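About this split. The held-out portion is used to measure sequence recovery: a designer receives only the structure tokens and must propose an amino acid at every position. Recovery is the fraction of positions where the proposal matches the reference. Here is one held-out target exactly as it appears in the evaluation file.
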């Protein structure tokens, strides 16, 4: 995830309202904001800047909730602040307020085809500093057979999960992935493989290259929903942390497990 500009947020808002109501338009939004269509067009195109005061008025007119208002105002402020230190602090605020991107829902038949761990890893390699992403490079970095890398690349392109941009560079067509059948064997296969990779990392990677921690505790299943919310927030923060650094050398996998170790003898 990268930080959007306040202009992109306004354009996103306009597109969403047009999608919900085909009678809505830029003219309608300008009227709602009590400005001319020409002024709104200038703001969206970058020809005119917003002041913090004007931005707050616009947020009220568009009936943004508090979090979206704070997000919008932070984006406006980020566009004008000059100090590198202030920009860094603002960027952290922006990522904390940004709505989390919803994972792309994949049909289970498709996920079944890419359930071997290296498919997702290849997709994420497109976000690293590697200059080329061919089968040989993939095989070397993921420690897999070149034949397997060739097959995976072909499969990902055929499914539209990888594409090439105008310069011929390989890019991922999806951000976050989520299969729509959480109990399916393909997902269990994927998680088993990643747990096996985690076990291998215990022996092959130093403490500077990984983080491993665990805790055994008495816990009530009535609190599982709250625990899931906390873990989702943890995932969200790590994703924002990764997005904030533009250049990344490696692909990491993060897993959180909370599972029962005692048998349920009461049933």
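Reference sequence for scoring:
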């Amino acid at each position: 995830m990268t930080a959007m500009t306040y202009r992109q947020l306004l354009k996103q808002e306009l597109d969403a309202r047009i999608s919900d109501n085909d009678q809505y338009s830029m003219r309608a939004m300008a009227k709602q904001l009590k400005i001319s269509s020409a002024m709104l067009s200038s703001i969206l195109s970058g020809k005119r800047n917003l002041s913090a005061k004007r931005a707050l008025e616009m947020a009220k007119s568009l009936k943004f909730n508090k979090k979206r208002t704070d997000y919008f105002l932070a984006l406006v402020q980020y566009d004008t602040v000059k100090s590198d230190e202030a920009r860094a602090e603002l960027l952290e605020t922006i990522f904390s307020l940004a709505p989390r991107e919803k994972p792309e829902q994949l049909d289970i038949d498709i996920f079944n085809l890419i359930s071997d761990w290296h498919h997702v890893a290849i997709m994420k390699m497109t976000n690293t500093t590697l200059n080329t992403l061919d089968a040989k490079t993939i095989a070397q970095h993921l420690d897999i057979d070149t034949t397997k890398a060739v097959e995976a690349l072909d499969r990902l392109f055929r499914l539209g999960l990888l594409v090439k941009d105008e310069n011929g560079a390989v890019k991922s067509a999806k951000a976050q992935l989520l299969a729509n059948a959480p109990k399916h064997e393909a997902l269990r296969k994927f998680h088993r493989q990643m747990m096996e990779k985690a076990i291998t990392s215990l022996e092959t990677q130093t403490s500077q290259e990984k983080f491993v921690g665990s805790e055994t505790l008495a816990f009530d299943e009535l609190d599982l929903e709250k625990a899931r919310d906390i873990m989702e927030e943890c995932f969200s923060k790590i994703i924002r942390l990764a997005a904030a650094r533009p250049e990344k050398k490696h692909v990491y996998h993060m897993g959180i497990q909370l599972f029962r170790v005692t048998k349920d003898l009461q049933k």
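Annotator remark: The chain has two domains: 6-97, 104-244.
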